[in-house]
């Protein structure tokens, strides 16, 4: 999408066909800078330190991490090392495992000399498929927005979203925000309520940045506010992304998603989850019990990063010194609270039946 | 309650019987300092700038504000001016109106020369009644905690609370935290999950501070986290305070309370609201429609106050520059989501019938 009128993607291979750069998301919203990923260690660090984040982008970055490793040393031992290093960076996003398994399958049986080129090609394919999937999600989601608008007799469509499932979480377009961008392009008037999404503030920093940079009207709110807005009839639908969706339609997403799904149900607001099928974990049935939830550093809660009046970006302590902190990064929204899943193949119910109707090739698994 | 082992109250009249000091809550959690309220303007400023906050403490501070005004000039014109000035500071807390109406009724018909002494006496009575009410709430709430513990077969009682409804919101003891302090004193093992409560961070800064200073075990969490903890069975009951409770049992409290009530219902966790009867607005039936919700400064969302590594307390910007913000300060939890109201007269259902059973003298109003 656009930044200062220029089209940008979160991850790109430069003109030499080998150098990889990413948007450094830890510098947003105050600075938009790209940084090079020199090697697999840099790719792993970028994922772990959340220089890149968002389930789809994590998968693509991991793929290019393998490509960078193959560029340095295409041996099978180094392939194993790269897969191990990248696989240990984040525990919840299923795309990471999925992308690494795909690279593994593509590379292992090849002669070492062919692995580098094939790794770049496979990574480019994954990135391209992500863009295509997000575009398709946007197209299907746009119809939902048009329907809501029709039912309201025209006017503004007011969408609430949590965390960042925009183009910054993917390669381009985004998942939850793809329908919003599609609506904006199609001239359907849309307004986005953006949860700030503590503790890491991906909403206030990233979603607000990307919507603002692209020119989409929006309002940032504290995470506590969405229920009140729904109660007052100010939200027409919720759309969020997903870090991992189970075969039964349960949705692991940024912590706090579950609370918004409860508020949506209590106020008859449709609650949609937008996801490329790469985030579906076909091996898991009960999300609440089975999805591993990442516990992140207490410092994300005790400290907040921001920009001071003199322009310095720094961390400030906000919690009473000495108070213990818990920081689970995701929660699971049970399928019963999800109105529908918006995938690259269309909109379906959040259920095993709904998912298999769109992905019949999974019936045998 | 105790700070560094010393008993403290949020507002106090000094040994001269006239000077009023308050704990400056904008300096917490990094500094515990008292500051004098020299005159009615200082009292109004303290309420408006949230140097004091919490519905009960706002009421007591307003009362002493009238006393300070009467000390300076006991004329009826000055009484009117003081009531007007103090009444315009905050719109949602009903105690403010209630305390001012009580001072008005006590003072207006008196000779001017008697007003100062009477205003101090009436303010001291309101403060004393608040302490007594909070103690009683603690006593009644303790029984709920004991019951939960019994049903669990002993062990730790895990309480989730939102915002600050502790002694810092009152004169002493607190409302929602009074049962927690009572349990702690009685040797009932208790652990409090503290919502940080963005945008003003009253949980992370104030609740965590007062629990830590008094020695009560607790864990600070992002506002997004409570639903996940309840889903995992880690919360035995929720207790929150109330800024205004309607005659039908609807509860206006800090924004985000409604979301926790929804999560509690979805997970069969009891959800209690602790309140002195001074926060009941007997004139309002439907809280969602009728309670005025204060819209506060966008800067509370766009900026966060904290302490930098060099010890300076400063505001940092956390939202994408230029992004608009909404900041409603309260929401309304419908009575249907409230398991019970814990008042100074006992525990009752969140309903007109429940409230009238405890306050039969209100039947005629």
What is the element layout, followed by pairings?
2 copies of one chain form a homodimer.
Chain A: E1 2-3, E2 6-7, E3 11-13, E4 20-23, E5 34-37, H1 40-48, H2 55-72, H3 76-87, H4 94-107, H5 112-151, E6 157-161, H6 178-186, E7 190-195, H7 202-214, E8 218-221, H8 226-231, E9 237-240, E10 244-246, E11 251-254, H9 257-266, E12 271-274, E13 280-281, H10 287-290, H11 299-302, E14 303-307, E15 313-317, E16 330-333, E17 340-343, E18 346-348, H12 352-358
Parallel strand pairs in A: 6-7, 6-9, 7-8, 9-12, 10-13, 12-17
Antiparallel strand pairs in A: 1-2, 3-4, 4-5, 10-11, 11-16, 14-15, 17-18
Helix pairs in contact in A: 1-2, 2-3, 2-4, 2-5, 3-4, 4-5, 5-6
Commentary on this structure:
Two copies of one chain form a homodimer. Chain A has 365 residues and is an alpha/beta fold. Chain A folds into two domains: 2-129, Up-down Bundle (Four Helix Bundle (Hemerythrin (Met), subunit A)); 139-362, Rossmann fold (3-Layer(aba) Sandwich). Helices cover 40% and strands 19% of the residues of chain A. Chain A is built from twelve helices and 18 strands. Chain A has helices at 40-48, 55-72, 76-87, 94-107, 112-151, 178-186, 202-214, 226-231, 257-266, 287-290, 299-302, 352-358; strands at residues 2-3, 6-7, 11-13, 20-23, 34-37, 157-161, 190-195, 218-221, 237-240, 244-246, 251-254, 271-274, 280-281, 303-307, 313-317, 330-333, 340-343, 346-348. In chain A, strands 8-7-6-9-12-17-18 form a seven-stranded mixed β-sheet, sandwiched between helices. In chain A, 56% of the residues are buried.
């Amino acid at each position: 999408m656009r930044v200062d009128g220029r089209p940008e993607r979160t991850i790109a291979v430069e003109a030499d066909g080998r150098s990889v750069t990413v948007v450094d998301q830890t510098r947003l919203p105050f600075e938009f800078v790209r940084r090079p990923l020199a090697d697999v260690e840099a790719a792993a660090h970028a994922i772990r330190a959340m220089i890149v984040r968002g389930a789809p982008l994590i998968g693509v970055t991991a793929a290019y991490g393998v490509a960078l490793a193959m560029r340095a040393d295409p041996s099978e031992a180094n392939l194993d090392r790269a897969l191990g290093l990248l696989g240990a960076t984040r525990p919840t996003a299923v795309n990471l495992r999925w992308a690494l398994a795909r690279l593994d399958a593509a590379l292992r049986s090849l002669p070492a000399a062919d692995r580098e080129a094939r790794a770049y090609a496979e990574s480019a394919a994954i990135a391209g498929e992500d863009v295509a999937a997000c575009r398709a999600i946007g197209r299907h989601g746009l119809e939902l927005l048009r329907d809501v608008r029709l039912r309201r007799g025209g006017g503004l469509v007011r969408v609430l979203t949590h965390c960042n499932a925009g183009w910054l979480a993917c390669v381009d377009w985004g998942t939850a925000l793809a329908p919003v961008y599609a609506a904006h392009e199609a001239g359907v008037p849309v307004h986005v309520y953006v949860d700030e999404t503590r503790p890491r503030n991906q909403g206030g920093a990233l979603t607000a940045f990307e919507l603002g940079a692209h020119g989409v009207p929006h309002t940032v709110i504290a995470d506590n506010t969405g229920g009140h807005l729904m109660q007052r009839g100010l939200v027409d639908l919720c759309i969020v992304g997903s870090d991992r969706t189970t075969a039964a339609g349960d949705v692991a997403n940024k912590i706090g998603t579950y609370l918004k799904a409860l508020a949506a149900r209590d106020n008859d607001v449709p609650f949609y989850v937008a996801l490329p099928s790469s985030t579906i974990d076909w091996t898991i049935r009960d999300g609440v019990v089975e999805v591993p939830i990442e516990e992140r550093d207490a410092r994300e809660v005790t400290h907040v990063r921001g920009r001071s009046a003199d322009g310095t970006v720094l961390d400030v302590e906000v919690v009473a010194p000495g108070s213990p902190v818990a920081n689970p990064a995701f929660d699971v929204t049970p399928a019963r609270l999800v109105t529908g899943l918006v995938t690259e193949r269309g909109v379906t119910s959040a259920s095993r039946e709904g998912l298999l109707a769109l992905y019949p090739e999974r019936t045998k698994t």
